[in-house]
Specification:
By secondary structure, this protein is of the alpha+beta class. The chain contains three helices and eight strands. A hairpin with a 3-residue loop joins strand 5 and strand 6.
Length: 137
């Protein structure tokens, strides 16, 4: 898969300082109908993998399991943005990664039903000065 460049990885680190980074995940069903959600829990867990907590994401989970494709937009004000194309890898429901998300979500009184892992395929700029420029593939 594709290593995430440092400038993108900096926006995908876990922690409170990342609350100002908006992360949107888009999927589509088998008919191509799009579905998008904002994901506060989305983070890079290594240089090729994204993960997020499965809380209410029933449609997202179904779409990922069916089509395997994901698109993430990462945006930080004023104009830093990236588009990450990726592929559903697995849902983790136990172990260290799962426990890490469970502990984090407890702070917000949310229940983590699992952790969805996405392998990164391609990364593009999504803001100026060159929106749509491929920076990793």
């Amino acid at each position: 898969m594709v290593p995430i460049p440092k400038e993108v990885m900096d926006l995908l680190k876990p922690g409170e300082e990342q609350m100002e980074v908006v992360k949107v995940l888009a999927t589509a069903d088998e008919k191509g109908v799009p579905h998008a959600i904002i994901l506060g829990s989305l983070m890079a867990i290594d240089e090729e993998t994204l993960a997020f907590a499965l809380v209410w994401a029933g449609t997202t989970q179904k779409n990922l399991e069916t089509t395997k494709e994901a698109c993430v937009i990462v945006y930080k004000h004023p104009m830093t943005a990236y588009r990450i194309q990726g592929f559903f890898e697995e849902i983790v429901t136990s172990g260290g990664l799962f426990d890490r998300f469970v502990d984090e979500l407890k702070k917000y009184n949310l229940e983590c039903r699992g952790v969805i892992k996405i392998k990164v395929g391609e990364i593009y700029t999504a803001g100026p000065p060159a929106p749509g420029q491929k920076i990793a593939c």
